[in-house]
Structure formats: structure tokens, C-alpha cells
Here is the input.
Amino acid sequence: MSATRLYLDYAATTPVDPAVAAAMSGCLTAGGDFGNPSSAHALGSAAAARIAQARAQVAALLGAAADEIVFTSGATESDNLGVLGVARANADRGRHVLTARTEHKAVLDPCKRLEKEGFSVTYLTPGRSGLIEPAAFAAALRADTVLASIMYANNEIGVLQDLAAIGAACRERGIPLHSDCAQAAGKVPLDVHALPVDFVSITAHKIYGPKGVGALYVREGARGLLQPLMYGGGQERSLRPGTLATHQIVGFGVACELAARELPAEGLRLAALRERLWAGLEMLGGTHLNGAGAPRLPGILNVSFEGVEGESLVTGLTGLAVSTGAACNSVSPDPSYVLRALGRDSQLAQSSLRFSLGRFSVAADVDLALSAVRSEVRRLRALSPAADGSVGEGGATVSGEAGGPGQECWVRFHLQVAGDTVKDARFKAFGCPHTMDVAAWLCGELRGRGRAALIPGTPATWAATRGVPVEKLGRLLVVEDALRACLSHWP
Here is the structure.
């Protein structure tokens, strides 16, 4: 894939397939089908025909009819339309929505918006495997429930929910069911006419199509349950107005056709690669498969590693493009809310990696990833104070530590001293890359310093010197406390 990084983050996005890019290029320039598909002239008709073909291709992937497909800008917009549009349209019948704690933020955030509008939302907690029990789901439905939204395939752990049983409970009570299928479409068989679902969200960029285009499946007969979020123009059955992006929609259609053609063999191939990866990681010991015991997508493997800090692990894997969770949450320092919902403690949730394999992944990629991850996990575990025994004083060594097991930061210094002078300094640490960097840098600064002026500066000056973001300053206070502990142990 890349000369510098091995791409194992297909759940975040996929590269556009060359066949998709070629089809898109034919709709961009003066020599192609660039016209506005709403125009009555020949160029508009040509573009409209391309869109009609793409609509049929998208529908075929889902087992839907072409007129049940509404094009959007992606799964996030589709989720917003499916959740907000249905709830608001049916507010006169009830104001209760049922969903799960492990949904994508594109569903959870609209649900929070509905709460501000006076709706009541129930967030189901899955079992430890990530599965929602259909009986628990059915029990949570109420007389005033106007919408349920449960994703088919979880974007972090790949767990597949029992949509047939969940949908049956909804149909029995006449409650619309929306499902975010952004990760499932094109990865596992999906027939929306065979499943009791009313609205399904998908996106192109998860199946080797372009970013910026997706669709909402609206079951025939369910159109009246849905109101638009935007107005103007009447396109897409007046549910999603605006000039249609012909090139993106055409690319989406080709991507769906390719995915449908390759799905049976590709699913088996990726499942084998996933199991090869897990078998190699499991040999490390102290590894936890998230979603174990539940049916899962063939291409996603989510593993938590004991004894390592997640950000340091990802930073150390310089040759791999992997994720610590959903791409939309990757900038957050908080542990995955999905893994916390499964019962993982904060440290295990934070030390998880999501490996996602795809069309261009091969066995050699898995083996390279295994080598890199095993090496880095062993390195970080060896650096941890947990591997270094307890703090003690012996001969010319003075030790001190702060933080501890289970905390986000744990630092221990060992100072080799002669009289009142530091001759050498070493550290052990469990923490983020900034914590590790500052501790290593301080070891160099400590050499030659006397006991009376042992601590060189303050956490604030260290942060400025080493480029530590302000939100990490609290972790440098732990580093400072470890040095103060050395002073308290100095004979």
C-alpha cells in the first residue's frame, strides 16, 4: 500500500478502487457526463441516466428497490435523517427512542439532540461480548416508542447484532427500526427486504468508493414516517434536496457493484487473515479479544493489551496505520466508550487497537504487523514499573515513584548517587508518549545535579521545552512527584 506505512485501518476509510476512480472521472470534465441531472437537455439526461444506474447498483447491494434509495453526503447525514427525521415526524404519537450505548456518534449525538427537544431516550448496555439480547431490547420498548436505532455491525469491535430478532420485536409493535449499516454493507450479506428494517444508513467510503456520498434506504411504505431535515429543490423524493453530485454517486454505484461481486470470497479471505492476526497476538499473553464469543465482521479485530499505554503503543508503531478506536474519536484522550460499555476497565479500554483488514491486505501484511506489535508491546511492558519490582534503597541507588497500577500515569526513577551528586539516572514509566519523553529527557538533565537542586525546573517549563500539550500537564506533575519521592528516600 504505502512505502512507509502498512495500512490496517480499512474501517476508518478505504482507498478508492481504480475502477471507481475511472468511472468518476467520466463525469467531471467537458468530455464526460458533467451535466446537472435535473436539467432537461441532453447533457442533463445523460447525467440522470448515470445516476439511475448507480441507484440500481446501490439498491442491488442491499436487496432493495431502486426507488427506496435516497442519496446523502454519507452515513452521518443518513443517520441524522433516519433518527431525527423519524422521531420528529412521529412526535405526536410518542416521544421515546430506543438505541444502544455502543452506537456510532452519528446516532448518539442526534439522540442527545432529541433529548434537548423533550424526547426520552433509552440507551441499552450490551453484554460483555457486545451483543444486545433481543429479549432485553423487546423489554425496553414502550407504548410511546416511536423509533429504535440499532447498528448492524459495530465500527470498533465488528460485532454483528441480531437484526432479525430485534426487527421482529419492532414490527410486532409497529415501531420503525433504523440501522446504521455503514460497516456491514458490502462486508456481509445484507438483504433489507428479508430483514424487518425500515431505514438503513450506508456510505461509499467504507467500500472503496469516494468520501462525501452515502445513502439512506427508506422502505417502501415507510416514507410517511420520515420528514426531511433540509428543504429546497425537491430532489431525492423531497427528503434530501440539492443538486446531485453525479461523479460521487456514479463512483458509489460502481463500488457497490464491485463489493457485491467480491463479497462471498472476500469475506472468507479476510476472516482467515483476521484469525491469523489474532493467533499471533494471543501468543503475547495478556491480550483480550473484544467481541469474543459474538459473530463479527470478517475484517475487524479489536484487541486490548495488558501493561501498555495505548497512545504510546500507537506512537511506537511507526510503520503501521492502525486505530485505537473509531476514527471520529481518535483525537480524544478518553478510553473507548464502546469498550467501557462492554465492561473493560479504563486502562484496558485505552490500551486497545483496532486492526481492520481490507481488499488490498495480504498474509505478508499480517505477519509484518504481528512482528511490529509484538516487539512494541514487549518493549513497553519492559519499560513499565510493573516489570521492575518495588521501590527500594540499596547501596548508591536512590529510587522514588508516583502514580501506580491502574492509573493513567506511573513513573519511577532510579538515581545512582555519590554523596550528594547524581552520577546516573534511569526511569521506568507507564504513560503517554509525552510522559515517556519528559522522563527520558530528565534523566539526562539529572546527571551531575546535587541533592539540593535535584529537580531542574517545573512541569510547566518541561512542557514548554518538550512541546507537551497543556492537557497533559497533569501527567508531568506525576513525574515531578516521582522526583520528590527520590528526595524523600535519599539517605
Notes: The first helix runs from residue 18 to 25.
